[in-house]
Design brief:
single chain; 568 residues; 7-stranded parallel β-sheet; 6-stranded antiparallel β-sheet; 33% strand; globular
């Protein structure tokens, strides 16, 4: 069995039982499907090689099923069936009885199946509907038969871990951590089902460093004074372990002691100016599509990035697995948490409810990760991506920003990355795929006149709702680069093509140094860490093999680590 580790160390019980592995599988709707004759390896999507299916055609409907054993002792309280993520609509039955329905391909959901289960053998069946050609959030999944440009192989159905856990009737529903680095404390908001005594204990390196306890009636916030202060910093995860007890229920979690905010033009981590040296990470894998074969690959991708002098990543057009964010948390790796907003029609306010309901789940489920230093709910939402004659409704962007800040006021939020911004955003970011000559002129306008001289590529003249940069907000170059380099393959795609290492390196060093030297820019994000299918603008190949010489990679890393003007 692949991927048998606990999928979410942010909220872990000892009763975890993994249901990954071989399931029965069939392609078709639930009312037409007959006997399931295929086998699929969960949690890999049927389009992937690792699933054992490898079907890259449009799979709009499919069915999963497997048997599992239940002991008598497991039916004394709640027996919870968890799904890490199923793309896009999932309807779950246990022993032929309805258990739960969930819409949205990127967040976790669960059901208490104790009333449906029996001692001995049980069967879980999952019916899936997923069609990226509909008006749904789908990120970079291709709406055409095959991949093209910056759109890739689709990922249908179960693509994250499925698991069981037992809890008592009265149990811990959730915990939210509010770190207070200035006072050396943390606030823990504990929600429970039922009333009783809650205990929250914090540890660092196995040593007890603080605790709080008291009666809870469904929700209470505890403030824990920490005896040992270890800040979560770039390159230093410094995580505090937490044990929460409520009656018979026990949950393990963790937090990082850090603050993230903007002051003037500067991004501050724990009150200290830090330049965001980010790289774009699409979260795709050659053999698993959306799902890594081994959780160790998360750690390895982060290490690749850090070896090149990046201190974080923009997690692009996908909600990454909780386990990936856990590795970011441990590594002190800065990330932008993004929603796969592409696929939605931004001119249609009917889509707004879909986006807000699914994005709200993301913010709630990923709230505790210290590595997430910016929320990024939307990407490049100028004219509708599929029809440039449809101008998106400005209220769409502003509503998503407002909801994000209502759910989480502790982090900055970019309302819509690149192109147009609404009236409300904490940072004005821009995408610039010009080469160094035009970039120099662009940055000169920023330095001298506080002006963003966007060309028609990024600010079409017929868009009346375009809100221009006001000369005051902090700036971030959240996409640049995108240079395709592949001497042996003429079919690769990128924003520009450069054929020699020398020319590529020269362009990279000049452009990156220019961004670092601009004292009005708080960070950048290079496109991208590795190739994805036909998109060949990565610094590594799709399989993470080295694309450039060691000497060249060292020069890239040295450049990325240069002091930024804004950090002075």
């Amino acid at each position: 069995m692949y991927r048998n580790e606990h999928p979410n160390p942010q909220f872990e019980r000892n009763s975890f039982r993994c249901l990954n592995g071989q399931w029965e599988y069939g392609k078709g709707k639930k009312e037409t499907i007959g006997k399931l004759t295929d086998k699929i390896e969960v949690p890999f999507c049927p389009e992937s090689k690792l699933s054992g299916i490898g079907d890259k055609s449009f799979i709009t409907d499919c069915v999963y099923s497997r048997k599992f054993e239940v002991e008598k002792s497991e039916l004394g309280g709640r027996l919870v069936l968890h799904f890490g993520a199923v793309d896009y609509e999932a309807e779950v039955y246990v022993n032929g009885k309805f258990a739960v329905r969930h819409t949205g391909g990127f967040t976790a959901f669960e059901a208490d199946i104790a009333p449906l289960a029996t001692v001995g053998e049980n069967t879980v069946t999952v019916y899936v509907h997923d069609d990226v050609r509909e008006n749904i959030p789908s990120g970079k999944q291709s709406k055409k038969d095959g991949s093209y440009g910056c759109f890739y192989t689709r990922s249908t159905g179960i693509w994250q871990t499925v698991w069981l856990e037992k809890t008592p009737i009265n149990y811990i529903r959730s915990v939210k951590f509010y770190p207070q680095p200035d006072s050396g404390s943390v606030k823990a908001e504990v929600s429970t089902e039922g009333c009783g005594e809650v205990s929250v204990k914090a540890f660092f390196g196995g040593k007890p460093v603080g605790e709080a306890s008291g009666a809870v009636e469904y929700r209470r916030t505890f403030e824990i004074k920490l005896s040992d202060i270890h800040l979560w910093e770039v390159g230093k995860g410094n995580l505090y372990d937490v044990e929460i007890s409520f009656g018979e229920d026990k949950v393990k979690s963790y937090f990082g002691l850090r603050s993230a905010a903007y002051e003037g033009r500067k991004f501050l981590l724990n009150g200290k100016s830090v330049f965001q040296r980010l790289v774009l990470d699409q979260g795709y894998y050659e053999d698993g599509i959306y799902t890594a074969k081994d959780a160790r690959q998360f750690k390895e991708d982060i290490a690749l990035s850090q070896s090149l002098g990046f201190n974080g990543a923009r997690l692009h057009q996908k909600v990454f697995e909780q386990r990936y964010l856990y590795e970011c948390d441990k590594a002190g790796y800065l990330v932008w948490g993004e929603f796969p907003s592409w696929g939605v029609k931004y001119d249609d306010l009917k889509s707004l409810g879909v986006v807000i309901s699914q994005w709200s789940e993301v913010v709630e489920q990923y709230f505790n990760h210290p590595s997430i230093i910016t929320w990024c709910p939307l990407n490049e939402v100028w004219e509708d991506l599929d029809n440039t004659k449809l101008i998106r409704d400005m209220r769409f962007v502003e509503a998503v920003y407002t909801v994000t800040k209502t759910l989480d006021s502790t982090r900055p939020c970019v309302d819509a990355s690149g192109g147009y911004h609404g009236r409300f955003t904490d940072v004005f970011d821009f995408h610039n795929y010009h080469l160094s000559d035009k970039t120099f002129n662009f940055l000169e306008d920023i330095e001298k006149f506080d002006k963003l001289s966007m060309d028609k590529t990024y600010a079409p003249e017929n868009a009346q709702e375009n809100v221009l940069y006001d000369g005051k907000l902090p700036l971030n170059a959240s996409e640049f680069g995108g240079i395709s380099f592949d001497k042996d393959d003429k079919d690769g795609w990128g924003y520009h093509t450069i054929c020699t290492e020398e020319d590529f390196l020269s362009e990279y060093l000049k452009t990156t140094a220019a961004y670092l030297g601009c004292d009005k820019i708080s960070g950048f994000c290079y496109t991208q860490l590795y190739d994805v299918e036909q998109e060949r603008n990565g610094l590594y190949h799709y399989n993470r093999a080295r694309k450039f010489s060691e000497e060249m990679l060292k020069k890239i890393a040295d450049c990325n680590r240069l002091a930024a003007a804004i950090e002075d």
